[in-house]
Amino acid sequence: MAVWRRDHHGYPVEPGLIHHSDAGSQYTSVKFTESLALQGLSASMGSVGDAYDNALAESIIGLFKAEVINRHGPFKTLAEVEFALMEWADWYNNARLHSRLGYLTPAEYEAAYYSQYPPRRPALV
Prior knowledge:
By secondary structure, the chain is mainly α. The chain has 6 helices and 2 strands; from the N terminus they run αβααβααα. It comes from Lentzea flava. This is Integrase catalytic domain-containing protein.
């Protein structure tokens, strides 16, 4: 989604970006790592404690569990959890006020950053 969004707004992701995730089987699959490589991205898979450990992903998962699952559960269906996740991810990425960003939302901060530069054309695939 991030790659599409950046491309859509004329600011394609530069090669070398690292995709952080936990070590779930969907993220360690050949198909997923191939799709990352096609976009010029690297997976953050590594051994525990090295520079590629997944502390960031685990921290985000912990926030989701504390703020949504524990507060609004129990959920009765997978669809309820998926919908709650989509709502929370949208809020987290677009609407939450962030003290390290001067109490702007991540979307506002990113828009202000990119307003300093002319849009680039998305890469043709």
